Amino acid sequence: MTTVTETRTMFGAVIHAPGDVRYEQRPRPVLLEPTDAILEVTAACVCGSDLWRYRGISKVDGPTPIGHELCGVVTEVGSAVTTIKVGDFVVGGFNPSDGTCPLCLKGATANCRHGSHYDGAQADVVRIPMADGTLVATPAAPPADLIPSLLALSDVMCTGWHAAVSAGVGPGSSVAVVGDGAVGLCAILAARELGATTIIAMSRHEARQRVAREFGATHIVEERDEAGSERIREVTDGIGADCVLECVGTESARLQSVGSVRDGGNIGIVGVPHGDLPVDQLFWRNVGLKGGPANCRAYLPHLMDLVWQRKINPGLVFDLELPLSEIAEAYAAMDERRAIKTLVRP
Length: 346
Ligand SMILES: [Zn+2]
Ligand SMILES: [Zn+2]
Fold this sequence. Notes:
Layout: E1 9-17, E2 20-27, E3 37-45, H1 50-54, E4 64-65, E5 70-77, E6 89-92, H2 102-105, E7 125-128, H3 131-134, E8 135-137, H4 147-152, H5 156-166, E9 174-178, H6 182-193, E10 198-202, H7 206-215, E11 219-221, H8 225-234, E12 241-246, H9 251-260, E13 261-269, H10 279-284, E14 288-291, H11 296-308, E15 320-323, H12 327-335, E16 342-345
Parallel strand pairs: 9-10, 9-12, 10-11, 12-13, 13-14, 15-16
Antiparallel strand pairs: 1-2, 1-4, 3-5, 3-7, 3-16, 5-6, 6-8
Helix pairs in contact: 5-6, 5-11, 6-7, 8-9
This protein binds zinc ion (2 copies).
């Protein structure tokens, strides 16, 4: 209960430098715009893209609140918010969107003309901008066992889905997935849901292979580079996969995708790009390339429905759960690949 003596602070994760994420007291967020909502976080998680800064590959400009994947309960809404109510359990897409601009109306919510990015979701309380266009409420308070799968919708499941949609996966497709992190595993689940019949997971890790099979992988390829592409051709009539889902972003992963797709096929690319692509080769081989940040908000209602009906269970990607106060270990475990993905609870 709010009292006049309440201290307006909370705790959250702050990245200070590569390898240095701390659990710190911070000002409690307040409504700044009439379109904002404030959430009490039920669960948040560490993203593979958070690791770019943790590993020093992307720059850290002084102490920065971190995290962009969350679900929780709405405690306050601004005067202009109409679809989200206090008490709703909501999932936030990682890329806020207004839901009303010409690009949002075409489903390109990741590129909303008023789009932004929020950092600081690994916290007790978070302010979400453009709440109507960013958040989706569940039909009712969710049962506890659905929380991980709902949380996965705030990024990795939408991103895996985006890879599959971008590559045009459909009934009967052969699909190869490059990357066995949480996004790659969710891409396998997306390919299955979209009707792919051959789904090849590229993975060398036993625990990840197990989740891949659970999500619908029909083949596991442990080889890399040309040997990996050769194995993919062996199960695709010698031509390569119709659709390759690139879920890593490194140059070697991008080249693996080009080497594994068939002529006339498509690459769906969702790994944050760090490296070049042989565009001339794509031209001569009639290979399509599409992707980018996921249109989370556009996909959320459908994917939430699938989770709610227990048709998909992307929450299986979380293999470590910690209290938010142990956020440093949450990062270390993912960095050292001891965990696929860490869920944290305030
Ligand atoms: Zn993320
Ligand atoms: Zn928009």
